[in-house]
């Protein structure tokens, strides 16, 4: 005995799946970019400031490989030749009397530097607590809003001497 059935709404489901296929990678990348922005902004408050060159070299961007499956990766970095050395030199914090920059926004105090080592690692560690649920929730909300998820724009460090 042969049976047949008709599925109603199949076209609507196919359209929705195509939309999700298009929007999900961009929405995820957008949500990750927003997390990167939080990390970048926190690191700008903690990066050591002497001439302002290190802080000014900070960047937040999207790396788009030629054959990216999920759209790319978010990068937060500092681009001076000495950025890594300063980041890893935990012994210098006590020697120079460095202070955390919470509320100080990197102002230079006569004879002292503001900032500390691990200026990128520490903000990342703090942001990583609860990051996956935040990214998932934001991605879901971006898709639900049904608006075009524009590609995030690259951010640069604060200009000028600090």
* Counted beta strands: 3
Alpha carbon gyration radius: 22 Å
Structural class: mainly alpha
Reading the helices and strands in chain order gives HHEEHHHHE
- What share of residues are in beta strands? 5-15%
Q: Considering DSSP H and I runs of 4 or more, what fraction of the residues is helical?
A: 40-55%
The largest sheet is: 3 strands, antiparallel
Tell me the overall shape. Answer: elongated
Q: What is the tally of helical segments?
A: 6
Strand order of the largest sheet: 2-1-3
Average pLDDT across residues?
77
Task: Please sum up the structure shown.
This protein has 162 residues and is mainly alpha-helical.
Structure explained in plain terms:
The chain is mainly alpha-helical and 162 residues long. The chain has one domain (16-147). It has helices at 10-46, 53-56, 83-88, 92-95, 121-128, 131-144, and strands at residues 58-63, 73-78, 155-156. It has a 3-stranded antiparallel β-sheet with strand order 2-1-3. Helix 1 (10-46) packs across helix 5 and helix 1 crosses helix 6 (131-144). Mean pLDDT is 77; it is low at 97-112.
Question: Which descriptors would you attach to this protein?
Answer:
mainly alpha; 162 residues; single chain
Write the layout of secondary structure elements.
Layout: H1 10-46, H2 53-56, E1 58-63, E2 73-78, H3 83-88, H4 92-95, H5 121-128, H6 131-144, E3 155-156
Antiparallel strand pairs: 1-2, 1-3
Helix pairs in contact: 1-5, 1-6
